[in-house]
Amino acid sequence: MARLAAALDGLGVAAGDRVGVLALNSDRYHEYLFAVPWAGAVLNPVNVRWSPQEIAFSLRDSDTRVLLVDDTFAGLVPALRADTPRLRTVIHCGDGPTPEGTLSYEDLVAGHEPVADARRGPEDLAGIFYTGGTTGRSKGVMLSHANLVASALGSAASGVFLGPGGRLLHVAPMFHLADLAAWSARCLLGGTHVILPSFTPAGMLAAVETERVTEVLLVPTMIQMLVDDPAAGDADLSSLRRVIYGASPISEAVLDRASRVLPNCEFTQAYGMTELSPVATLLSPQDHRDAVRRRSAGRAAPHSDVRIVDPEDVEVPLGEVGEIVVRGGHVMMGYWERPEETAQALRNGWMHTGDGGRMDADGYVHVVDRIKDMIISGGENVYSVEVENALAKHPGVASCAVIGVPDEEWGERVHAVVVLAAGAQVEPEELRAHVRAQIAGYKTPRSVEFVDALPMSGAGKILKRELRARHRAPEPAR
């Protein structure tokens, strides 16, 4: 760590300069997360699921001059150099031969003596973390050292996030704030990091067995893939004690299946976003045993204040739907070089999440939908998450997404996009009847579309903007 920081110094990296990493999870990623702040520089973990054009945009936008790449992404270097003229140095952090035009990670570390920690201050910029772009162009979220520590300390202090001395498995991508939250808390509390390059059900099952993993952070799509894997029932998962999940909603059906496959595990849900470093609320294992509370996102974490407000930022009565807003030491510094969007998001001292939700009398936050994803059909508000939960309870549904599509009669109609479970044969009307039996008729999908897979972001979120684009009316000829 201190040797890598020295190498960065030797390459001309100055205080505040951005250093990127484009790599799968590894021990070198772990070292990068420590070494860049040690050198006084700024982290820029790159989304490994982006296209080369999107990666180049983030490097240009943040003016990243030094980039670490592993074997998986070394082939992109020529194109990235061509699209990012100010990228001056590429460090190869893989195990294969060092590609031409790049520097060897291990040679750099071996060739430098350790340097002292630059000791950046709490309010200094720690990293620029790009949003997944699920609703539009990706933005660089500026998080300070104080932001990251506040979220990690508050989450750890809750007593329901991670415990002291555990063995944490990293299978969620380390570029994402969800995994970074767990990484930070485990570093603060002490313990062991077990790192896999990426998630596969087989890889996770083997790692839990051989490394006696005690805790893991997963996104709901990973949980679904794990519990659907036939090998999960035969694996020795007795060491696993806690599953933390978040980043996107989880259906009750998937959660029920996960509880059966992992009967010795406690589940903790973390709700938040990149702009909140990332944790805002936590749903404890005890709350998961309550039929009503388990459908919520939990209560404010110790470091977080949460309110529900109307469009004029007036707090709404308990039980009414409004926008979820958050304040605390974990709220971002702002969006990189986007002052207008920063001012819009951080109005009146609160981070406006863009999520619609309500709060009950006990302070539990119920997320109903992204405000942009809310469907208005025939003058009625329909929250896609509610419809998706109803659909997911059908045994023939593997995964689903609900969107609003243009409709001449209703303005928007509720449209379901469904991936069927292996071997399942289900007709649209059967799914519609299944949903109608659980929720109001006007919320029932008026149309159903079957697909082989849903478009996903690098963080495992369904890209509803891509689904909506398929149904957008073509632009009139000019």
Automatic annotation (TrEMBL):
InterPro entries: AMP-bd_C, AMP-bd_C_sf, AMP-binding_CS, AMP-dep_synth/lig_dom, ANL_N_sf, ATP-dep_AMP-bd_enzyme. It comes from the Bacteria. Residues 2-336 form the AMP-dependent synthetase/ligase domain. Residues 386-461 form the AMP-binding enzyme C-terminal domain. Keywords: Ligase. PROSITE patterns: AMP_BINDING. The keyword Ligase applies. Pfam families: AMP-binding (PF00501), AMP-binding_C (PF13193). One of its GO terms (molecular function) is ligase activity. Gene3D superfamilies: 3.30.300.30, N-terminal domain of ligase-like. This is Long-chain fatty acid--CoA ligase. It comes from Pseudonocardia xishanensis.
